[in-house]
Amino acid sequence: MMPKVIFITGNENKYREVEFVLSKFNIEVFMENKFRKIELQSDNLEEIAKKSIEYISQILKPSKDAYYVVEDDGLFIEALNGFPGPYSAYVYKTIGLKGILKLMEGIENRTAYFISILGVLCPDGQIRLFKGIVKGVISSEIKGIHGFGYDPIFIPEGYDKTFAEMKLEEKCEISHRARAFQELAKYILSTFKH
Amino acid sequence: MMPKVIFITGNENKYREVEFVLSKFNIEVFMENKFRKIELQSDNLEEIAKKSIEYISQILKPSKDAYYVVEDDGLFIEALNGFPGPYSAYVYKTIGLKGILKLMEGIENRTAYFISILGVLCPDGQIRLFKGIVKGVISSEIKGIHGFGYDPIFIPEGYDKTFAEMKLEEKCEISHRARAFQELAKYILSTFKH
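ok -> structure tokens follow
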């Protein structure tokens, strides 16, 4: 029996990234979008992810070979006091990338972080959290065609191109999401009982 | 036995406004800040207020003479696709009034709405929602010293000053919150059995 990850999301872009990351650990991942994700309003991603997986765990029985995962992620811009943070999806839908660039006009400190938190229901019935983070800067213009969300305005530290100018393989070497799922994969491989 | 309103909030500014509005109906209001308000992430204020009062009603028994009220409100700016909307409090804390004005630079359509939704646990054990709305425009600069939140940049329709340039009495004749609580007061007075 091999362990598998059930990724509770409606976002196929995220799913493809996770599939790529976990394939290196020989862990299969399945996308599950039949659950309504309940997300709290909170400044704290950990709290949002924890409550979200707790809610789902009320109706799901733990499975012997499956790790149920919800992800909460956000872009935290230092000069904007963490905005858009936990509400990155809503901000993307309303003011969008152009709104963020407008807010950043004339601002020198362009440091930002992408953070990903996984809330995981493990086979032992316990809930565990895993975290991934990548530091970078907000670009001065929208660039690139790959990825999704804020990828076209985020330049990771040590690079001179945005996430959206990288192919999936390259982004997944360093992204917050990749790092969080790598942590999960290591945990799974170190504890899973065949 | 007179009906009373228990307003579940940690915001004293809101409490003072509600106290003023309900005093005209001879309804007493008490501020209650010992409950942790659970707020969902949703684009829909009604859903947020409904879930919030449902959550509280799981632990509160209905009272013969008390209406338990949670309020969810937000500023919806037309040209920004409803931003900041349900996340007005977080946006205020992070990018603030200056951030909103920066986003509105060069934008002609400055129409905005303040919306207030009350989620109410009534003496009969039922949950009811009440709504108040006020239309206006986003000012070009921060003005006024009264009120709180977005008041210094919101000019209600038919006026040439911001909410923050009005005293509480004047704001409470037209504000979204006042209107929602007036609706609640009318409902209480028409249905409450002495």
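The mean pLDDT of chain A is 93.
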